[in-house]
Amino acid sequence: MLALAPTRTAVLAMDLQAEIVSRFADGSVALLERAAMTIAAARKAGLPIIHVVVGFRPGYPEVSPHNASFSKVVGTGKFIASPPGSDLAPAIGARADDIVVVKHRVNAFAGTDLDMILRARGVDTIVMFGLATSGVVLSTLRHAADADYRCVVVEDCCGDADAEVHRVLTEKVFVRQASVVAASELVAALRTGSTGTGS
Who has the most CB within 10 Å: 27, 126, 179, 185? Predict the structure, then answer.
């Protein structure tokens, strides 16, 4: 059974911005509902909610022309939100007291103050989910595991344009470095107040 210590656990809801969610029309409504349910349960249990968002300054000074992913965004006006996080999908139910971390690369830790925020709060366990499974979730999980965080991936709050890629990652790859659970399992653990270092 999944066991969490609420005082040492944080939730990372990653890249759940309207612009990104719109690319995942199939199943995104149900995914967002599960994500919102997970966030609400975590909030009730006292876990900090950290929204990780893609964001750039006007003119995209953070984007290198050598970056195959983000160079396509330059000049489009996308991902320049003020304040950062204001472009989160409304269904997520973000609140003013949630933490927003702005990233300029795929990995939530790359060039951000995420690690400092987690360490300052005494967090050693990260519950993570978002879009896409093969993007921010994969990159962030790899970094977090190498940084000695205990990781939990909420499988049905993640999505990918390729369902087979999502399946292989969550069933065969992520399980080597994380506990992979369903939203219902995580919510149940939070509601029963499970603590410890568990599975």
Answer: 126
